[in-house]
Write a structure and sequence with these properties.
There is one protein chain. This protein has 192 residues and is an alpha+beta fold. It has five helices and seven strands, in the order βααββββββααα. A hairpin with a 2-residue loop joins β6 and β7. The N and C termini lie far apart (50 Å). 14% of the residues are buried.
Length: 192
């Protein structure tokens, strides 16, 4: 079982981020190696994902369904399928929530993927590295898609990225100072 728990920060308002995440064709555009297939009468759809594990590239095909709650900006994706040869089966689900955060949005992603069959041990062993790599790539593509939808120009992106790094550094410093001073206060109270 592979467990996914990731947090993606996007420098855009939650409604814009939600508009991307609630549309499968836009999401597929944010995931490297993925492709959207046919839609079915029950609302499900086919998807394919090529994932590289060390020197091996595995192509998975799955049938997926997406349940959305627009008011809460949450969603759940359920999927099951197999690799191209049918020797490895995958079944999983993921939930996501878009929340407002100072300077934009944060997307919380949680899920589980169960893998069985011939490539299960290889996929499970390399999962942590692959999930981290794919999350970073997804965050960059999601931001780029939101930039495009918001009409952000390339020169604005550069200054915006610098501003984001400065805000992130200031937040880290603030959090560190809070921890430092809260520890001193506790220590002073314990002494007194």
């Amino acid at each position: 079982m592979i467990t996914i728990s990731e947090r993606v920060r996007v420098p855009h308002p939650p409604d814009l981020v939600w508009s991307v995440l609630s549309e499968p064709s836009r999401v597929v555009g944010c995931i490297e190696g993925s492709e959207l297939g046919d839609y079915h009468d029950d609302g499900s759809f086919d998807a394919r994902l090529a994932v590289k594990f060390a020197a091996i590239k595995v192509l998975f095909g799955a049938r997926a369904s997406l349940d959305l709650d627009e008011a809460e900006r949450t969603g759940r994706l359920d999927a099951q399928g197999s690799d191209a040869r049918g020797s490895t089966r995958v079944k999983g689900h993921a939930t996501f929530r878009v929340n407002e955060e100072e300077g934009g949005s944060v997307v919380d992603l949680d899920g589980e993927v169960d893998i069985s069959g011939q490539l299960a041990s290889l996929v499970t062993t390399g999962a942590a590295v692959v999930v981290t790599r794919m999350t970073r790539s997804f965050a960059g593509e999601l931001t780029a898609t939101c930039d495009e939808l918001a009409g952000v120009k390339p020169e604005e992106k550069k200054s915006g990225a610098l501003g984001q790094r400065i805000v992130a550094a200031l937040r880290s410093a603030r959090d560190w100072l809070r921890q430092l001073f809260s520890g001193r206060r506790r220590h002073a109270v314990e002494k007194g």
